[in-house]
Amino acid sequence: MGRAMALRFARAGMNIAIGDVNEDGMAAVVAEAKALGVEAFGVYTDVADENANFALNEAACDAFGQVNVACLNAGVTGSAGRSWSLTKQDWDWTLGILLDGVIHGVRAFVPGMVEHDDGHVVMTASIAGHVSSAYSGPYMVAKHGVVALAETLHHELRAEKSNIGVTCLCPGFVNTDIVAATRRRDPGQVGAVQDKLGEKWLDFSERALAGGIDPEIVGEQVYDAIVDNQFWLFTDQDWDHAIGEKNQQILTRKAPTLGHPSK
Ligand SMILES: NC(=O)c1ccc[n+]([C@@H]2O[C@H](COP(=O)([O-])OP(=O)(O)OC[C@H]3O[C@@H](n4cnc5c(N)ncnc54)[C@H](O)[C@@H]3O)[C@@H](O)[C@H]2O)c1
Among 5, 83, 192, 235, which is least packed, fewest CB within 10 Å? Predict the structure, then answer.
């Protein structure tokens, strides 16, 4: 999805700075962006590392003067398994990338935008920020946290009558590399599947994502959401019923049932 966003922005004439831990992937996207006639570069950035986020902001400002759009999108499925089977390292690693990564990103990129009172922050949450399932606790916790932070940032910027916009991107199923990246981790390694139920969850996710939408569509949707200054960005309507049902359960004080997409 990050590639699709970067190339959509490049097609609009925007210069691109990318941070990722996948240096080959980053170099390929930089080359694609340059071929579209804009300036682009990549910096090895582990988003879980606070300083790396500040260094990426500085590199982008040195190269282009300021950051106009920050997409806090890096992600992993995280360790899969029962919440009590996962180790502290599993929890910390996943939350470090998915939640701390976004927190660091806000602290690194927003102050510069506040200074020139212009810009847009896109935070990638998930349907998992609204509806929880079993066997991927750290992912669910992180994505609920990202939704809360996006709402908080939006309220704070509105209170200051700021011109900075926020979009909370909540993808449903999108056909990307995210499950394959988890499969490439060695058994027992942090961030890998930790038990049989986690394995089942990953199998389910793999099938669901293979039938998901093309990331290119998300790139277009993100670009349009920035132009329209739209806060909520759901990539499809398949989970609307499950989200409505969950909120109804809250209002009627009923225990949650497992939400399903409507198709
Ligand atoms: N694919 C889906 O169906 C789906 C659904 C909901 C939300 N999301 C979210 O969308 C975002 C993008 O994921 P995707 O599906 O495009 O997956 P992807 O695996 O194709 O892309 C994720 C990118 O993040 C990078 N990354 C991983 N760890 C990193 C780290 N520590 N620091 C910097 N970069 C790191 C990877 O190298 C990769 O380039 C993630 O936040 C994910 O949770 C995905």
Answer: 83
